[in-house]
Amino acid sequence: MIVELRIYYCAPGRLPALLERFRSTTLGFFDKYGIEQIGFWTTTIGPDNHALTYLLKWDSMAEREKRWNAFQADADWIAARAESEREAPIVARVENSFLAPTDFSALR
What we know:
Elements (H helix, E strand, L loop, with lengths): L1 E9 L4 H18 L3 E7 L8 E8 L2 H13 L1 H10 L6 E9 L9
Antiparallel strand pairs: 1-3, 1-4, 2-3
InterPro entries: Dimeric_a/b-barrel (IPR011008), NIPSNAP (IPR012577)
Protein name: NIPSNAP domain-containing protein
């Protein structure tokens, strides 16, 4: 198992738009492509409160590449993302890391 940690840093004031896009659009595409989420969080105390952090679970990097690339290439997703950013960009920058659980991790 591999866990992907993704952090989306929003343009000022645009976190509500990102949350709505995930709630009403993105998660449907995740379901369509079999992308399994572990959870989503916003930052209440920390260096940036305009961020959305989430975790995705993958069986392998090959599975991740296949599913993520299909999702990113979906014409309906591309159109929906563009529509959500028609008034202004939402995400200023994205960070992602791939994590492997230790042998003593509760999540393996």
